[in-house]
């Protein structure tokens, strides 16, 4: 009987011919780990792109910041401005009325039209080249209660129309008299009195209107309407 010679590369066929059972197939590795790795890689890509876009947005936003003038030391209304009263700060100025840093030098020597508070941004209407009151002007104080001013109060720089109303005694004004005492008055300062709840307001008016306004204010016969609001 002739022996069968089997090539080295065919062990499976040899075992089949000799009647030996074939070994079980090698177990396949689960694909979960591979899929998880692919998912993590995808997440890393998304996060990288997302953070890149966010960084780009922040860089663009930082480019919107501008250098503007700020108040360093408190300044009372009417006082002359010195260089030490003002400083600079970089902020995003969207929707904010400010004074650019380039104008800082020109502000020294001007006069505060309203009290300047330390740590606040300087408003363009807060300074005047002339001392207040200027020629032909006068500053008049008003004491206003509920119904005599806008419900949201007044701010420095607001422009008012001042009218005559019946006084606290209830006496009516002359029927044919013009109710408008001052067509345009600028608010210099406004402060709520914590004791009586009234509002003390200083207004800048033409000198020709000052006497009648002062008398009406002393009688409690004035009310104001805001015609221009300071932003």
Describe this structure in words.
Among the domains are: 64 residues, Type Iii Antifreeze Protein Isoform Hplc 12 (Alpha-Beta Complex), CATH 3.90.1210.10; 92 residues, no CATH class. 24% of the residues lie in helices and 26% in strands. It contains four helices and nine strands, in the order ααββαββββββαβ. Strand 7 and strand 8 form a beta hairpin. The chain is elongated, with a radius of gyration of 41 Å. About 5% of the residues have low confidence.
List the helices and strands and how they pair.
Elements: H1 11-18, H2 32-62, E1 65-71, E2 86-92, H3 104-107, E3 111-112, E4 127-128, E5 137-144, E6 159-164, E7 180-192, E8 199-206, H4 207-218, E9 222-228
Antiparallel strand pairs: 1-2, 3-4, 5-8, 6-7, 6-9, 7-8
């Amino acid at each position: 009987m002739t022996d069968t010679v089997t090539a080295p590369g065919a062990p499976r066929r040899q075992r089949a011919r000799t009647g030996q059972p074939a070994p079980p197939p090698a177990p396949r590795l689960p694909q979960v780990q591979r899929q998880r790795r692919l998912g993590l890689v995808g997440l890393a890509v998304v996060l990288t792109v997302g953070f890149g876009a966010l960084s780009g947005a922040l860089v663009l936003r930082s480019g919107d910041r501008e250098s503007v003038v700020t108040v360093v030391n408190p300044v009372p209304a009417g006082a002359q401005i010195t260089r030490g009263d003002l400083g600079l700060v970089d902020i995003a100025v969207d929707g904010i009325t400010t004074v650019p840093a380039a104008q800082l030098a020109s502000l020294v020597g001007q006069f505060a039209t309203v009290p300047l508070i330390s740590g606040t941004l300087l408003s363009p209407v807060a300074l005047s080249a002339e001392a207040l009151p200027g020629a032909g002007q006068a500053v008049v104080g008003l004491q206003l209660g509920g119904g005599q001013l806008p419900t949201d109060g007044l701010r420095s720089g607001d422009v008012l129309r001042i009218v005559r109303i019946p006084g606290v005694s209830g006496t009516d004004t002359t029927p044919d008299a013009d109710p408008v005492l001052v067509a345009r008055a600028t608010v210099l300062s406004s402060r709520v009195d914590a004791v009586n709840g009234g509002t003390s307001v200083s207004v800048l008016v033409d000198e020709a209107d000052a006497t009648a306004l002062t008398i009406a204010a002393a009688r409690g016969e004035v009310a104001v309407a805001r015609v221009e609001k300071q932003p």
